[in-house]
Design brief:
Length: 160
């Protein structure tokens, strides 16, 4: 038995080609450095969030309990016309958020900022702000690349 030849269909060929191009673009999107960096940051951030949450639960909440009683306000509520409003859940979350933000700031952000300031202490500035549009321009520039205003190079003295 002989199989008849398949007629040439340009629309199917074009559809297959565009699908391959789409998958190629998707593949390059997945292996792009930014996406991988974002995935790593997300995983590390989730692990760090768990660490900070456990630190708050193990050390900060008991300290709050020593100072002001129960650190868990989730049982606090009020009732209006038979409807219960558990505002304590919000207070517990808000307290946890403020404590977590303080821990992240004082143990991570502040030391990192001080370290970066020490590392960049001896560097000479290579840019300055345009006096017209406040965009960064090189020190030697005679014209702003953003607003095209003429500016004196930072190395020259202004006219009197």
């Amino acid at each position: 038995m002989r199989i008849p030849p398949v007629p040439h269909r340009p629309d199917l060929v074009e559809l297959r080609r565009s699908g391959v191009e789409t998958l190629g673009g998707f593949r390059s999107f997945l292996v792009r450095g930014n996406l991988v960096d974002l995935a790593v940051a997300f995983v590390v951030g989730a692990a760090f969030a768990g660490l900070v949450k456990d630190f708050v639960t193990a050390f900060i909440a008991p300290l709050l309990a020593l100072l002001g009683g129960e650190p868990d306000f989730s049982r606090l509520s009020f009732t209006v016309s038979g409807t219960r409003f558990p505002y304590g859940v919000f207070l517990t979350s808000a307290t946890s958020f403020v404590i977590t933000a303080a821990i992240v700031y004082f143990l991570l952000v502040l030391p990192t900022a001080k370290l970066l300031a020490r590392l960049h202490r001896g560097q000479v500035a290579t840019e300055r702000d345009c006096p017209h549009c406040l965009s960064p321009i090189p020190l030697e520039a005679r014209r702003c690349r953003h607003c095209t205003a003429e500016v004196l190079p930072a190395t020259e003295a202004p006219p009197r």
